[in-house]
Design goal:
3 helices, 275 residues, eight-stranded mixed sheet, globular, four-stranded mixed sheet, 19 strands, 14% helix, 46% strand, mainly beta
């Protein structure tokens, strides 16, 4: 009899303890269990210039009326927005690393979008765009680190140190280890996109990146492969392309852009040379 009574008390006590534990988990109190999902760091910045269309520029006509400005917004986050000034410039801060899209609107109507990929934390992106036939066209793009985090190296690749097809690759340059990271580092030669496998010892490169905290390693944002004996800057080379507006192939047109803008155009189907 006494044994049955003790067993019943123990069962009741166990049930009460279990209920109290579950209540604590869901209450958010000190004894609860919580999980926090961290999103992309919002430390990137875009500084842009909206250039006048060629005909308007020759005639001295402003690219947009003062009472009908172009507004640039981060897609999905309308609070991050900037109005293009009378001089054609705008600045957006607090942009996420990785991938994001900017929307350009005028009079409430969407006139174009620009998508950015491989954006690193604390990266400053400078762009120049043009509104042509109601569409936003990227003319040139430059990326670099901000403040003390930014660093640039140039010289011959001393050695390929490591390569992981699913992760980072590393090489040595000017006595430092340069880290090439998928989704962060863009590699190109002129207007062509390249991959880590295209790098080799003895190759001349220009690296833009940020120093890894606590070490002398450099996380590369851009690796520009240069031609031997003819150092190449990050921009300046002009190329003629056949631009096909996304979703509107019947309005393709020949335009001239900076070589730095070619990868973005190539990604949506543009081709080199006149239409």
């Amino acid at each position: 009899m006494m044994r049955d009574w003790l067993m019943g008390r123990l069962a009741a006590l166990s049930l009460a303890t279990g209920i109290a534990f579950l209540a604590g988990c869901g209450s958010g109190g000190g004894g609860g269990i919580s999980a926090e999902i961290a999103g992309p760091k919002a430390t990137a910045m875009v500084q842009g210039t909206v250039a006048a269309a060629p005909k308007a520029a020759k005639a001295g006509v402003a690219f947009t009326a003062a009472d009908d400005p172009i507004v640039v917004t981060l897609a999905g986050q309308p609070a991050i927005t900037a109005t293009v000034g009378a001089d054609g410039t705008f600045t957006l801060r607090g942009l996420p690393e990785g991938r994001f899209t900017l929307e350009f609107r005028q009079g409430g109507d969407l006139i174009g979008t620009l998508e950015f990929a491989e954006v690193a934390a604390n990266q400053q992106i400078t762009i120049r765009v043009q509104v042509v036939d109601g569409e936003v066209v990227l003319l040139d793009e430059d990326r670099r680190g901000i403040g003390n985090a930014g660093i640039e190296l140039e010289g011959l690749v001393e050695a390929i140190l490591s390569f992981d097809p699913a992760g980072d690759g590393t090489f040595s340059l000017a006595g430092r280890t340069v880290i090439v990271r998928p989704g962060v580092t863009a590699i190109r030669k002129g207007a062509e996109r390249k991959t880590f496998q295209d790098l080799a010892a003895g190759m001349r490169v220009h690296v833009k990146g940020a120093r890894v905290e606590g070490s002398t390693d450099v996380l590369a944002h851009q690796v520009i492969i240069q031609n031997p004996g003819s150092p190449e800057t990050a921009g300046g080379e002009q190329i003629e392309i056949c631009h096909v507006p996304p979703g509107n192939p019947s309005k393709k047109k020949t335009i001239t852009i900076d070589a730095s803008a070619w990868p973005a155009h190539q990604a949506h189907g543009d081709t080199k040379g006149a239409c």
